[in-house]
Amino acid sequence: MTHKAGFVAIIGKPNVGKSTLLNKMLGEQLSVVTPKAQTTRHRIKGILNDPEYQIVFSDTPGIMQPAYKLHKKMMDAVDSTLVDADLVMLVVEIHERALSEEVAERLKNLVVPFILVINKVDLADQETLEQKVIFWKELLNPGAIIPVSATEKFNIQPLVQTIVSYLPASPAFFDKEDISDRNVRFFVTEIIREKILVNYQKEIPYSCEVVVTDYKEEPEIHRIRCEIYVDRESQKAILLGHKGEAIKKLGTDARKKIEKLVDCHIYLELTVKVRENWRDDEKQLDKFGYNEE
Question: What pTM does this model have?
Answer without folding.
Answer: 0.68
